[in-house]
Specification:
It holds the Pfam family ATP-grasp. InterPro entries: ATP-dep_AA_Ligase, ATP-grasp, ATP-grasp_carboxylate-amine, ATP_grasp_subdomain_1. The protein has about 400 residues and is of the alpha+beta class. About 35% of the residues lie in helices and about 25% in strands. The strands form four sheets. It has an eight-stranded antiparallel β-sheet with strand order 13-12-9-10-11-14-17-16, with helices on both faces. A four-stranded parallel β-sheet has the order 3-2-1-4, with helices on both faces. Strands 5-8-6-7 form a four-stranded antiparallel β-sheet, with helices on both faces. Helix 3 crosses helix 4.
Length: about 400
């Protein structure tokens, strides 16, 4: 099977998709923005050809490139695994008559108001929301729904540029960041109270062949705005337990796939559970970011990249998750902006619980700090696993309390 893989070199985890496709027998043709000389020999060994383009989201240029490839070989699939690339890839699929995620599905998984409108029509419980291109439209929605509200870009990923507002004054201030009276088109949503997590799958023909559930501590918006917090996300190994409460979440995931037309693809679905019960938040038709797949692999005795490749190339998976370990990451923030000067508490944590550490990223002194809102991988972090979910939570809490990142 000949597969065109969009942007195999960046970010660093992208190389695993090329590796996995090659390992399961695919012929991999890379298309990316870097010159071929910037690729290392190992990455190049997994591809039979690499083609540079100025911008992988330029549909016209990408279409021309894929058609050039089609003049040489039959292209069975075209795959993209980065949020910003999924819509362009889907449009090129349709231009070049390559099977896979449709442009409609990719659009619905990118445009939050349209996504939620379709899902509400399908009976999936989700927050009230609207798309707005003027301040007047936002105020009308606020008058009808009330506060608090969430404002975010229509096609953003993660919590970047997401704002919570609790009253009219905060709303007007936030609108200024989106363009004032004539705002760039944004999504405006009812704020949903509750605990937040995500549900990730490798789906085949719309059915979850592999699935994983993770929890945020605290919720993302608070985590990305508060320096002193050492936020975590933790993947549970209790998904298959008869006493777990994940059946409703799995059922919701299946309904979302059906409503949005998701077929064979990785998915990343965010959810809330609170006083109003389980609520859908949003979904991406792609893998999660910040190394979540690496945590799933470390906890489940499998290579999830290879299983994704098996799903794409062969239409099935070869390994079931063992659920042996719960896994998680705790992000460690510098005490101020500047340059990292050192760490304290690392040896204490290593002595107490080093056997449960998967890996740690501790940038050397002199490294410039990144802002709090840059995310879980922005500065330092530690990743851990343990057979018991609650014990893992305690271990991650201990790391967050003990390890300090000093900056000056």
């Amino acid at each position: 099977m000949n597969i065109v893989l969009i942007e195999p070199a960046f970010p660093p985890t992208q190389r695993h998709f090329a590796r996995a496709l090659a390992e399961v027998g695919a012929t991999v043709i890379g298309v990316g923005e870097r010159h071929v000389d910037a690729l290392d020999d190992q990455l190049k060994s997994w591809m039979t050809h690499y083609h540079q383009v100025p911008n992988v989201t330029d549909v016209g240029a990408l279409t021309d490139t894929v058609r050039w490839i089609q003049d040489k070989v039959w292209v069975d699939r075209l795959e993209a695994t980065i949020e910003a690339h999924t819509l362009a890839a889907a449009q090129v699929r349709e231009n070049c008559t390559i099977p896979g995620t449709s442009a409609r599905t990719a659009w619905l998984c990118r445009d939050k108001p349209s996504m939620k409108e379709v899902l509400r029509s399908a009976g999936v419980p989700t927050a009230a929301s609207t798309a707005a291109s003027t301040a007047e439209q936002v105020h009308e929605f606020a008058d009808a729904i009330g506060y608090p509200l969430i404002l975010k870009p229509r096609t953003g990923a993660g919590a970047q540029d997401t704002i919570r507002v609790d009253n009219r004054e905060q709303l007007d201030e936030a609108l200024g960041r989106f363009g004032g009276q004539h705002v760039s088109s944004i999504a405006v949503e009812e704020f949903v109270e509750g605990h937040e997590g995500f549900y990730d799958t490798v789906s085949i023909d719309g059915h979850a062949a592999l699935d994983f559930v993770s929890h945020y501590y605290p919720n993302v918006l608070e985590a990305m705005r508060t320096r002193w917090i050492s936020p975590q996300f933790v993947s549970t190994n209790r998904v298959d337990s008869p006493s777990s409460d994940y059946a409703e979440l799995r059922e919701m995931g299946a309904r979302v796939n059906e409503a949005l037309g998701i077929g064979t693809s990785a998915t990343h679905m965010e959810w809330f559970f609170g006083p109003k019960g389980l609520r859908f938040s949003e979904i991406g038709c792609r893998p999660p970011g910040v190394g979540a797949w690496d945590l799933y692999s470390a906890g489940n005795d499998l290579d999830i990249y290879r299983e994704w490749a098996n799903a794409v190339v062969h239409g099935h998976i070869a390994t079931r998750p063992s659920r042996q370990f719960a896994t998680g990451i705790v992000a460690l923030r510098p005490d101020r902006d500047g340059n990292i000067t050192g760490y304290s508490g690392v040896d204490d944590v290593q002595a107490r619980s080093g056997q449960w550490v998967i890996d740690a990223h501790l940038p050397p002194p002199g490294t410039p700090t990144q802002p709090v809102e840059a995310g879980y991988w922005a500065n330092a972090y530690v990743r851990m696993r343990h057979p018991d979910y609650d014990t893992l939570r305690e271990l991650l809490d201990d790391v967050g309390r003990t390890v300090q990142v000093h900056a000056g």
